Queue: 4 jobs
Job 1
Amino acid sequence: MVIVGGGIYGCATAWHLARQGADVHLLEAATIASGASGGFGKRGVRANQRDLRELPLMRTAYDLWPRLADDIGACTGYERTGGIHLIERATTGTEGEIGAAETHARVQRDLGIPTEVLDPEQVRDLEPDVCHDVQAGLYSPLDGIADHTATTRGLAQAARRHGATVREDTTVVDLRRDGDRITAVVTDKGETVDVGHTLLLLNNTGAAALVRLLGTELPMWRVFPQALLLRPHGDAASPRHLLGHDHRRLALKRLPDGTVMLSGGWRGRWNAEHERGELIQENVDGNRHTAADVFPPLGNARLESGDASRAESCSVDEIPVIDTVPATSNVLVGAGWSGHGFAIAPAVADLLAQWVITGERPDPLRPFSYMRF
């Protein structure tokens, strides 16, 4: 079988399939973890305030992350820091506010995600340096962070050890079809690679173009998430937990070297001349000001680096498409992770491998069918 894409989904699925004896060829257009699965810092391993359809996957992923490094024989940088979703306003429309906090907590608990509502004093017991406007918090103690680059590369190495062929600098440009089956892929070097049993399109922002060759449009687009690395001034405090926010675009993670990774939904833009994503200064400033408003010790932090070059695919309802491609019998696609696919990757990859081997769609993946559109 052929997997297109050397991000965390392609590498993790290749590892699961290869260790079960499958003949796996993974083709990556650039290098392993060169896209959204790579870059500086760490990513959130978060269930708190996640789409409810993804929570069963996250419940499984909670059990997989602590042992993943041992399973693949490589560092993942996983830390169970706990996560707090900060709430400042009594009302923020229909999706948030203090009044909704207990309902969110109850539903998350019912779906297997330990969650509690914190009052202002409890928030400050855990995070003494948040601003005084914070009135409550949703606390998920099993949330954490992990090194996305190291994890993805470690999965690729583990897949190789189990016999998978992993090729970089190999772009798939065309597909060969016989009825409803894809029989081969064609690379930019003019090479034809036999697909065999299954073709998995797990190449994130590149998946839509290949699915289009099969006559289907995926309801998704490309964005360039902004990530910043801050160095707190002197002995200034850093966040102790994975922090999100009820109405502000903000995510904070303290890294082992003392820096703080700042993100949360701010975007860069595509530079057509240089053919890459780039930062927008206004958004860099906006992200930093937001961080300082919520966590004042970051007001004097030094910006060490920033990046908006790693494209992400976003779907119209902000959850992924994980399904067979219409009018094909042997093509699976997984794309549209919308900036929060990393945490659930170990669970989804295992289920994708089960799907390929058994031919039956696992129940936890049913909400992500293309047919929902």
Job 2
Amino acid sequence: MKAFIALEFEKLLANFNKMAGDPGLSDNIVGAVELCVKALRAGGKVMFAGNGGSAADAQHWAGELVSRFYYDRPGLAAIALTTDSSILTAIGNDYGYDYTFARQVEALGRDGDVLVVISTSGNSPNIIRAAEAAKARGVAVVGFTGEGGGKLAPMSDICFRIPSSETPRIQEGHEFIGHLLCALIEAEMHPRAAN
């Protein structure tokens, strides 16, 4: 067990060192923050979607914006499209699972909003359809994928491609970047006093 634990730490650190050494990653983070802040300042919102563990990330990040991250401030308009069982089951029953997020984007998305979509493969059909629905409505798409990027990468205005093919490593990278986005959006929308 200890050998396995040590190996997992090695893989985590190697992955984060690759991320830290990618000069384009910081630019993408800044770009994604700017998209979200622009939407929020214009009275828009940030929507989040993902499946499985990525659904948990969607809910987590929406919660950080609506409630608080580092400090108390007014809530920010964010919604996870993964949480309403009546909506999810109605869409799944009436249109099929591939439309669970797209239909919500069609109903809620407005020009200037942002959709953050999370898929470790970049190929989840319901995520791809959500991105298509967003693009059709003038909603910016911020994608989170693994190193391959899948179909989602070219559909995204900004795509965070974690440099790994292992799902746990990809998810760890997503979580780190998601936290950075929440912290920076919070700071831009409601700067703290200099102290």
Job 3
Amino acid sequence: MKINEQFSKYANHYGVYNVIQEKVAHKLLSHVKGKPKNILDLGCGRGAVVEKIDWKYERFTGVDFAKGMLDLHPKSNIIECIEGDFNDPMLYSKLGSKHFDYIVSSSALQWAKDLDAVFDNIAALNTPVSLAIFTSGTFETLHKTALLEPILHSKDEVYELQKKYFDQNFEVVSYKLEFEDTREMFQYIKKSGVSGSRNALSYKQTKALMDEYPLNYLEFEVVFIYS
């Protein structure tokens, strides 16, 4: 299934750069069934998922390799933050000793060094999942205009990989985020974290791209894999 969502949220008007990630986290949680009591969040960041949970749970465990993000993550006697890398097989050995009712991951697994291996490790925990992963359809027109190869997996690649380990519901959602001008658009790209810190263009090339980019919005494509 493919769904298109278009909305105008000029990022600087709100003083935030995670507009899309917030929407993705909200949709990801809409797929979580049964109000699980023990939840694992891989790539939890500063807490976009836990802040949106609207049911009572007993334990929430957030994992992220960035200490700065974990410092900003909500904490309590039922929220545990673990500094760890979802690319590291040893992490799953440690997590395997814990009990989880549900595994979630929002806007993080697209940066997996080996998505196949990460899926394998997640599946080995034998727990229902709700995963949201950005794909190569993100910034599609920008990449074509700049003659850049996408750095993310395509939705078809993610679909084939997830079939090996989950074979669950698979949904593709396209978002469009509108801006008043290309300068603000490029500021968003730089500060939002959705580009993976990619810096493939020189200043001159970037300026040319800003002049040539034909749209007033950025495209995002996210796949949702859920039990």
Job 4
Amino acid sequence: MNDVLGGLLDFVQSIDPLLRTLLAGVAMMFETSVLLGLVVPGDTVAIVAATAVATPVEFVGLVIALVVGALTGESVGFALGRWFGPRIRSSALGRRIGVHNWDRAERYLARRGGVAVFVSRFLPVLHSLIPLTVGTSPMRYRTFLAWTTPACILWALAYVSVGAAAAGSYRELADRLHYAGYVFVAIIVIFAAAVFAVKKVLQKREERHMRATLDGDGEGPDA
């Protein structure tokens, strides 16, 4: 396992640090602007890029690139929602996403406002739909940025820290322990499990808010 994992990590690290950082930032921009996050999660991009971080400068540079990329993409998503929201929703892609998910994003935003923008960064599906949805809402762009910026920073710091720590631990142990690869995998799995648990808690809270909204509007199942 060490040989396979070492080869993969060496390949990522062999890419020029500046190019690698820029690619991660661009990937995040597309992930948050044109719904690519529904196919290739930004979580994967951040973790893979972070495994090659070797210096504090590279760490800070990657965090900045991910944050700037995410904010740029979300700003594009916001603009697309402002100008083409209904068209995107009625397009083939919009129909494939599903009326349920669009309605869910709209209700969540209507009830929670800025909090929905912040929390959505950590929720599957919603983090790709919320920028577009906000663009169709009365929320101002500066208000949107005020809520999404700290969420993007927190998200980037968490993923880059874990990816760099996992790869760093592996490289320190690889020459001494034949099971060093399992240490790397264990760190990633534990983090993934923690992220999954947090997302499930957030999703359940969001679903409770949705039910409360429906009941309050007289649209619940008993209405």
